[in-house]
Design a protein that fits this description.
By secondary structure, the chain is α/β, with parallel strands linked by helices. It has 13 helices and twelve strands. Helices cover 44% and strands 16% of the residues. Strands 3-2-1-4-5-6-10 form a seven-stranded parallel β-sheet, with helices on both faces. Strands 7-9-11 form a three-stranded mixed β-sheet. The N and C termini lie far apart (50 Å).
Amino acid sequence: MTILVTGGAGFIGANFIIDWLQTRDEGVVNLDKLTYAGNLRNLASVEGHESYTFIRGDIGDSVLVPDLLVEHKPRAVINFAAESHVDRSIHCADDFIGTNVVGVYRLLDNVLRYWSELPEAEQAGFRFLHVSTDEVYGALEPGAPAFTEDNSYKPNNPYSASKAASDHLVRAFHHTYGLPALTSNCSNNYGPFQFPEKLVPLFIHNALAQKPLPLYGDGRQVRDWLYVRDHCAALRQVLETGEVGEVYNIGGNNEKTNLEIATMLCEILDEIRPGNGGESYKSLVSFVKDRPGHDRRYAMDSSKIRRELGWKASETVESGIRKTVLWYLENQDWVAATVGGGYRDWIRKQYR
């Protein structure tokens, strides 16, 4: 038995593959285009694994995808492939539309053709799991109930709009053609292998280099923080026991402001890697101009997946952030190999 993972060289996809090969006796085929955030170093620990195969390619390639489906005969497809950085989508949305909308449509179309030709028993067991985001729901007011699966979609930036479109396509392929699809919407992930443009790894990297820690606006935007390994465990549960056609919200039940996360990171670093002169890393926090359309608050109600599938996050934000800091400190060679010239140019441009 084999599963096909798309976008498996990215942050969440790589963690999913590593965890899968540690917990399942089942092969993984990883299809990844290797854009700037796709990094095969993330998967160095499984590179020689007998049950792992990497294929470089685009989910929108209507020649390659059908061929690899026929060759490897996966019993499930888990779609992580996406352009996922809000700031980049604001500067240029082309790649987001190309991958998150057109690419997902072509992937669905080719998977549908493959699935429709399977024997009846294999059709019944097949699953297409689409991994999405809480940002499709828009923003929450302070004190408002957390997002449930019944919330209307109200995306507020090009990234979340493109993900909302892909979610709708998945739903349409299930209801129109019967494709056995499921969708998950997750909250803010953090953990090992996250590209250092996102808040947690960016702040760890900058703090160690004694560079400013740039917080948008007043830093009081609220997010629900989810440790990536908890997310991977939830996805395995959705794939195994989730009801076809359903949507499952996956959150960490850890609402914190960006400023609180920055403070927590600084305090952990002050404890285990004190800066020069003993001054707290908190002195590096710098407030910068807020980005356009910045959603003030996200929060996820994960009661459905807890009630129906028995999953809940095992890490608190405090324990997960500490694990993440330790991982980055122990893997500075990975960081050094990841933050090349293009990355530095982007950071200078974005936080000038």
